[in-house]
Each structure stands twice: as C-alpha cells, then as structure tokens.
Amino acid sequence: MTVYDLKIGDNAKIINFLAGREFRRRLVSLGVTKESKFTIKHVTMMRNVFELEMESGTLVALRKGEARKVEVKLCKK
Amino acid sequence: MQEIKIAFVGQPNVGKSMLINAISKSNLKVGNFSGVTVDSTNINFEYKEYKIQITDLPGAYSLSDFTQEEKVTKDFLENEEYDLIVNVLDSTNLERNLYLTSELLMLNKRIIIVLNMIDEANKEGIDINSKQLSKILGRKVLKTSASKEIGIQELIDAIIETYNSDLKLAKIRFSDVIEEEIINIVDILSKRKFKSKLDYHVLAINLLKKDKKTIHMFHEEPIWIELHEVVKSAYEHIYIHYNNYDIDEIFEENRVAFSKGAYSETVKLTKSKKSNLTDKLDSILIHPLFGLPVFLFLIWGLFQLTFKLGQIPMDYIDSAFNLLIEMVKNSLGNGEIGSMLGDGALAGVGAVVMFLPNIIILFLGITLLETTGYMARAAFLLDGFFHKFGLHGKSFIPLVTGFGCTVPAYMATRTLKNRKDKLITLFVLGFISCSARLPIYVLFIGTFFKGYDAGNILFLIYLSGAMFSLVAAKILRKTAFKGEDEPFVMEMPKYRLPSFRLVWHSVYGQAISYLKKAGTFILLASALVWYASNYPKIDNKSVEIEQSYLGSIGKTIEPFFEPIGFNWKMSVAILTGLSAKEVVVSTLKVLYVDKDSSNGDVPDEENQGLIKALKKNISIPSAIAFLIFIMLYIPCFAAAAVFTREAGGIKYLGYLFVFTTTTAWIFSLIAYHLSKFLIT
Lengths: 77, 680
Ligand SMILES: Nc1nc2c(ncn2[C@@H]2O[C@H](COP(=O)(O)OP(=O)(O)OP(=O)(O)O)[C@@H](O)[C@H]2O)c(=O)[nH]1
Ligand SMILES: [Mg+2]
Prior knowledge:
Helix content of chain A is 17%, strand content 39%.
C-alpha cells in the first residue's frame, strides 16, 4: 500500500521508499522519514496532489507520482 | 578594524532573511514560502570595532545539491571563506531542522545555533531547553524572534564572542558501530602522525561516508596502503550490522536518529499542539471543490481593485503634471528647450507616473500572496493542472512573481531542479504580463473599451497571458524539451499574518523603484523620443513629424507591422518598448499629443488629449492587435539580460526573441483580421 491508496483523514506510517537515493534524501530532509507517522490532510479534486501532515506538524505536498513511491501501513489514531 | 564574515544557513522559510534584516536594518526580501532567497546576498555594516559581513544564503533542507539554490548554499559553505556560521532553526519544527544542523556540525567551523520564531513556539506551547541543547550540540544556542525583535542584541554579542573564542569540535554521536570504526581510523592517523588541516575525527567520518574529495586526497598519500585495509573492513562491519549496502542511507538514518534524540531530550510540549488557524483556512482555501474557484475569485478581485481604485487618483496626478509642464515651459520662455523638457521628458514621465496607483495595488496583492502562505496553496491547487501542460507545480512561484516583474521571476526559476523545467519556464515567463505592461492595458482599455467593465477586461488580458504561457509550455515540452517528470515535493508553510511593516516595506520599495525608473530612464527616453520626432530641422523650421528621424525609422519598420494593423507611430512605440514597457505609453504620448496640442487642442487636458488622439488615429481592431502584441512580445532589456544569464547562453536569447516575436505577430494578425471581420 502507498500514500496514493489513502483517503483524507487516514493515519499511516511510512515503511519504505520505492525510488532512488535522491528521492529518499529529499523526503528525509523534509522530515518524511521511515517509521514516521502522518495524516492525510488534503487531496486535490482529481487526486493529483496529496498533503500530508507529519507528526511534527510539518505539512508536505506530494504529487501522485511521488505518492505512489512511498510505501505505508495504515495505523489507528 | 577586524572583519567578521558570517554565513546564515538554515532550512527554507525559517526566517534567515528576516533575522538579518533585524540585525542590520536592511531590507532583504522576506516571504512565507520555501525559496524566497535564491542567490547569496552580502550585507555589510559596522558594529563597535568590527566590520561585519553577513551572507544570506538560500534555504537548504540538507547539504545535498537537489535544487540550484541549494547548490549555491552547499558550494558557498565548502568553498568560500567565512569565519562563522549562524545556523537558523524554526523553533516550531526543531526535529526536522536539526537534520541540517547535524550536517553543518561536520564542517568544522564555528557555529551558533539560533532558535528563531520563538514567539510562535511559546504560543504553541513548545518549551525548549536551550541549555540542554547547547550541551548536546556543543555550541552556543540562542532563542530569537526576528519578527518581534527578541534576542537580536544577544545574537550580535554571541557572534562577537564566538568569533573571538577557540574553535570547538563537532560533537555529534553516531551509532556504536560507526563510532567504533571512527576510533579505529583516528588511531591509525594519530599513530602515523598524519598531517592535515582537518581534524582526524572529521577525516574518519568523511572516509566512512565515502566522501569523494577525502578519498581522492588519501589516494595520493603513502598512508593509504595501511588505511585502505582498515577502511575496507570498516565498511564490511557496517554493512553487516545494518544489513544495508547504501552507506548514504546509513548515515542519513544516523542523522535522523541524532535529530530525534536531541529533540526529545530538549523539547517539552505543554499545550495541545499548534493553533488551528491553518486547518481552518485550508479547509476552504484548498478544498477539493471550492479551492480553485476561490483562487480565481481572489485574482479577479485583485484586478478589479487594481483598475477601480487605481483610477481614482489618476486625474489628480495628470493635472498636477500638466500644471508642472506649463510652468516649466513658461519659465523657459516657450522655446525649444522648454518644449523638450515639457512636451517631451515631463509629458512622458507624467504618462507613466499616472499609473503608479495601479502598480501599487497590484504589488500589494502580490506581496500578500507571498507573505501570507497562500502562494504554496495555489501551487498545490494548480500542480495537477500545470502538470498537464508540462510545467512543474513549483513553476507557479516564478509565474506569479512574473505578474510583478519578469526580472525576479527569471531568477526565481532557480528553485526548479530540472534544467528542462527551468528552460521551459524561462521561455514562457515573458507571456505573463508584468506590471510595466499594466499602464498600456489601462490606457487602451480606457480608450477603446469604454462601455465594458474595465476590471474584467484587465483580468481577461492577464488570464489569457497565463493561458498562452501554459499552451506554449505544452508545445515546448512536446518538441524542444522532452523529458522525464520531476518529483513534486513541497513544504506547505503555516499561514502567517504579515506585519504592516513587512508589507509596507515591500510595496513602498516597489513604488519607489517605479518612480525612480520614471524619473531617470523614462525621462531620458521621452526626451529622446521628443528630439527624434522633432528633428532634423530644415532651414530652422520644423518638418512634418513623418520626416523626422523617428518618422523615417517608423516608416522603415512599418511594412513589418502593417499586416497586423499598426501605423508607424505604433510601430515605433513597440520598438522603444523593447527598452522598457512603460516607454510604450510615454512614446505614444509624445508622438500623439505633442503635435496635436500644438495644433490648438486644450493643453490642460493632456490625458484626455492622448485618449482622444488615440481614438481618432487607431481603429479598434488595430488596438486589439496592439494589445496582443504587447502581451506576447519580448519583455525589456533588463529582463533579456537576466534571461540570458539564467538560460546559460546568448543563443537562448536569440531563440526567445524569434519565438516571442513570431508568436506575437501571428496572434496579432489573427486578432486584427478576426475583429475587423466581426466589427464590420
Ligand atoms: N512569528 C514569526 N515569524 C517569523 C519570524 N521570523 C520570520 N518569520 C516569518 O517567516 C517567514 C519566512 O521568513 P524569511 O526571512 O523569508 O525566511 P528565509 O529563511 O529567509 O527563507 P528562504 O529565503 O526561503 O530560505 C516570513 O513570513 C516571516 O514573516 C519570527 O521570529 N517569528
Ligand atoms: Mg531568505
């Protein structure tokens, strides 16, 4: 399961990055790290862009192509 | 006097530029989104017996070279000379900010840690134990608020104290396995008394990180024979322990763990997390259904205001200038010089200054967009749409900046990582109508579309400019710049109410620079246009304007513009508009009104005179074609120079010129004939 499969309001935990080093490094430096938890805050109408609220409070936007490259596990609140 | 060179480094949008402004009373650009500062800027001032130079660097999430502006920061830190680093952090987002800090600690420099936005942290109930943090990092830690000016004096004192103190060493702890191998390497280096400027500890870490420069350096050294074996077995040890062969990732994880550790040891949350202003606003502003309509409405409202409010003081400015012109002409005895100054220079300047109110309102809108945090939201809403046209969502930021001025917009393309994304954005940016084109639009709308809602037409013009740039981007993407998609990953800042002072400074600065341009460049250009349209004189008598220098230039280029319905005066205005778009208006004014008013028109109604003259001499289809040409052809000289620099070669400017001129010409042709057909 990836971020792309989530709905608004879902809580999830990041398990793995399914893309190269550069992509991973970018996300990690933005605070989107393995094991970190987040909530899906907003999704645009055509499901093109996703907004994640990380546990730290940071808001990060990902396009669907990138959302498909972040493997997650659903978790309860 | 001693000179202290300081580099301000931190993640994007933490308040580096604003902090520098607070320290040095300067006016660096501040905005509430990532990537406001895109190039390094130096600020100099004196304090006590010190000469201080601060370098404001673009924000960097980490010391990689992901985007061009992050590369600027990385290159600066690695190659330039400086005495100390001020590492600015956002107190409300400490854990992530410490990630960059953990990288900076490896640079072996004097560092001061500044926890900025402490006012927000206090409000959100985030309690940071700075003594403890200072112990963990081995550096001085200060709390500041750039916007409330808290801790500014302390920061200056700390800078001087740190400058005069001994260099302390990095103190970041890695996992046991890595620490063990660091010790092994350091042992060998110290046993062999290896000579190096860098600390052994740092060298060891760099070796383990497979830092290219360090490894290259060791390859030349005799010690490498011995070291080589140790390093190799260190890698094995680490690989086996982590069950991972990616040393980069292992170090990344170590940094994340370090930041997490430092964070949890020093931060206590006393209240239930953050304010929910951002939540509330976002539930409307980026609502999946309402988000886009609200965005369009806001932009529409901005253009309505720009026209409607801007209109009010116009007549006053105009009559003030007419008075001035009369006074100048009278006091100079109504001679040639007086006419040159009055009918040429001042008339041209007046025609441009009249639009200052419109410009101010437009810039006020752009400033609010930049400082509230809405900019990133708009990029979020539009990315899907942009993506269809082959543009990156982040291209939105330069495009919006382009509504103000194309020059900083070209610079803002540096936030785009991919070169093709950058080039596409550079090529289509000119189609976004900058504020300098606003006077022409307002003038023509006022003249030719009297019965319509001017604000709506203005909105339509700007919108169609934006549409042009999107379609052009699509075409470029399909032909000249085919390429892979770049990832779109963007931080969304929280909403912030900009202080009055911040907005004032930014709008005031724009207004002043507009006036300066009017008082210098436009003044000169208008005087020149006047001269060239009144000379040469035969037997000391004025010739018909058609026989003047400018007339013959106009007549020469007229054939090119004739098919699209321009007369020679309009063609000349297009030509002089290459220097700056405001010059189009001042040129039209000098060419049309000068002669007419000396033919007996009432002189104290000069703007009315211009509108009348335009109406009399230009047909509506020609006017529409003219507007479209203005909308699409190349910006000004200044923009062209920056474009060439950003695109990386003069040949690109050639392409741009051909590309925009052709597009402008073809669409003006279509518009001219279409509207002629529709009207008659
Ligand atoms: N409340 C509060 N807001 C601040 C403070 N410092 C900066 N800001 C706001 O934070 C935003 C970012 O400020 P900048 O100075 O542009 O940040 P920067 O670090 O230079 O950003 P980049 O150039 O993009 O890397 C602006 O909206 C500022 O008004 C502070 O101490 N308190
Ligand atoms: Mg800045």
